[in-house]
Specification:
The protein is mainly alpha-helical and 95 residues long. The chain is built from four helices and no strands.
Length: 95
Amino acid sequence: RAPYLALTSPTHAAIVRIAATPVLAASRERLMLLAHRGRYMAIFDRGRWDQSMDEHQDMLTALKARDSAAAGEIWERHLLNTGLSVSEALSKAGD
């Protein structure tokens, strides 16, 4: 999973940079500082791993097709699912 983490963070950062929305970039930066540990823990859940891989594949397909509407929906779903997984992982770690 180390290669995944090495590639996914810069990819997400590039998408945010391309969006050219300073508020989004600042929000992502703050959230990533808080979520790094939980995000790492979350991908060790096999179900989330498989789901995340599917989301990334769907995103690549939408980007290659230049389908911004689909890419936006996939991105939103991916972020929501990641947030839920991070929250669950951190909650379990606190038990």
